[in-house]
Write a structure and sequence with these properties.
Layout: H1 3-18, E1 35-40, E2 49-56, H2 63-77, E3 90-96, H3 134-144, E4 150-155, E5 162-163, E6 168-171, H4 176-187, E7 249-252, E8 255-261, H5 277-290, E9 294-298, E10 304-307, E11 316-322, E12 331-337, E13 340-344, E14 347-350, H6 352-355, E15 360-370, E16 384-394, H7 432-463
Parallel strand pairs: 2-3, 2-4, 4-6, 10-16
Antiparallel strand pairs: 1-3, 5-6, 7-8, 9-11, 11-14, 12-13, 12-15, 15-16
Helix pairs in contact: 2-4
């Protein structure tokens, strides 16, 4: 089902509810037995996709069976790419509910059971189209997990069935993992079905990222994945693998002609295959629509001050905590001081050597980029994020212009033209060595001059008349 299909589903649900075909159940009447359990937590809820699986058609005695089904379902999902690479972007939960009876309704077989979310097959006359009371499911999830982003309903019935919309619905069949991967393509990434089986009454369109009415290269949505030598439109006979080359293959979205899909085969056309490159890209972009690559930073606030006269203010450790990625996803962390790259990795130590000798204000920036291979078309730069700080450098170093003896020369005077108090002004005087030489020369001149004066005084005294003879 597509998003347009979701609108149709919800509209029919409302009509059925009005005419009493579906009995609307007040969630408060059964919430006392609904239990929220954490399956996996990878980080803060406000920067994660919080996915919850709700049990449907499980009696009170089948709670443990539901837990096992959820473990198998989510384990299979997160072993499949690109979900495996982006597992760290999800928090996973389950809600245990109780139904009076097991399973789901099968109208075509005349079978009806009493279940909490009123699951039924045969929706719109299609046996495998399995739906539930979506409004109730969303209400139950939001009541127990207000931050919920994605709701999956697991129906305790072994007949193949599912649907995708505001809620992804999956039956507990042997291929439940494949059904979930397909339906989340609808519910999470807004992908279209790529099979050509007709769906009467479904309005034609190509709003989804994996279908296009145009096949010309310049108009094709996914041309970033198309090699220049690939013929457009592309025939199945041109395929070299199940997924390559990416091109424009005719037939998708319940139509055999006039609309094109990216690859020869894809999960959105048949559960026998994985996602094609274009559908996988759409899923990754959907992750970054909801998740920032950066979780937290330290220091959390700006400005950060380095005072040269207060060694306790430097060096300053900076850190960034990122969403953990795996598999084929990649992540680059780069630090910039102004326009100069000064480091990489999740930590940086900023010291005075980095900021230079001048006081003033500097801009420190950390950039985190997903540089994996899943995305080629990112016009909104969703795969990159940054944080910045204003760094203020002030003060004068306590040892500026001062030697180990306080900046004084051998004769106790200021050395190198420095103020004896340690001030660095007056450094335009002679160098230390030449200053000492000059002092020695002046001392010698003074000594010689004083000696000559004393000699001259003696000679004068010898010639002085002592009186008349």
């Amino acid at each position: 089902m597509t998003r347009l299909g979701t609108v149709l589903v919800v509209g029919v649900v409302v009509v059925l509810g009005v005419f009493g075909v579906w009995e609307w159940v007040d969630p408060a009447s059964a919430r006392a037995v609904n239990t929220l359990e954490t399956v996996e937590n990878t980080g803060p809820a406000d920067n994660r996709i919080d996915l919850v699986v709700i049990g449907e058609g499980y009696r009170a005695a089948e709670g443990e069976a539901f837990r096992n089904h959820v473990d198998n379902l989510l384990g299979g999902l997160l072993a499949t790419e690109p979900w495996a690479s982006y597992r760290g972007a999800f928090n996973l939960y389950r809600i245990v509910t109780e139904s009076v009876e097991s399973g789901a309704d099968h109208p075509s077989a005349g079978l009806y059971v009493d279940t909490y979310l009123d699951a039924t097959y045969d929706y719109l006359g299609v046996e495998r189209l399995l739906v539930v009371n979506e409004a109730l499911a969303i209400s139950v999830a939001a009541d127990l997990l207000p931050e919920v982003d994605l709701v999956v309903v697991l129906v305790n019935d072994t007949l193949y069935g599912g649907s995708g919309g505001s809620v992804a619905t999956v039956s507990a069949t042997d291929v439940a993992v494949g059904i979930l991967i397909h339906e989340l393509g609808h519910s999470f990434a807004g992908l279209a079905d790529e099979y050509t089986d007709p769906l009467p009454g479904f309005t034609p369109g190509d709003n989804e990222p994996n279908v296009d009415f145009d096949f010309a290269f310049d108009q094709l949505k996914w041309n970033a994945w198309v090699e220049p030598t690939t013929p457009l439109p592309t025939l199945l006979s041109d395929a070299v693998t199940d997924y390559l080359p990416v091109g424009a293959y005719e037939g998708a979205r319940y139509l055999e002609t006039g609309i094109y899909r990216p690859a020869p085969h894809c999960m959105m056309g048949s559960l026998e295959y994985d996602y094609c490159a274009v559908c996988a890209e759409a899923l990754v972009l959907s992750v970054y629509d909801r998740v920032d690559p950066i979780d937290t930073v330290s220091p959390p606030e700006s400005p950060v001050t380095l005072d040269r006269g207060a060694p306790a203010t430097y060096p300053v450790p900076f850190e960034v905590a990122t969403v953990a990625l795996g598999g084929d996803a990649g992540q680059t962390v780069t630090w910039w001081l102004g326009d100069q790259e000064v480091g990489s990795g999740t930590a940086l130590t900023l010291d005075l050597a980095m900021v230079g000798p001048e006081n003033g204000t500097h801009d420190l920036r950390c950039e985190v980029t997903d540089d994996g291979t899943w995305v080629r078309n990112d016009p909104d730069h969703a795969l990159a994020s940054e944080r910045s700080w204003t760094v203020v450098v002030t003060g004068v170093s306590s040892d500026a212009g001062v030697d180990e003896d306080g900046g004084l020369g051998p004769d106790g005077g200021p050395e190198n033209g420095a103020d004896p108090r340690g001030c660095a002004c007056g450094t335009s005087g002679p160098s230390s060595a030449s200053g000492r030489a000059l002092v020695l020369i002046l001392v010698l001149i003074l000594l010689l001059a004083n000696r000559r004066r004393r000699c001259r005084t003696r000679r004068t005294a010898w010639r002085t008349p002592r009186g008349p003879w």
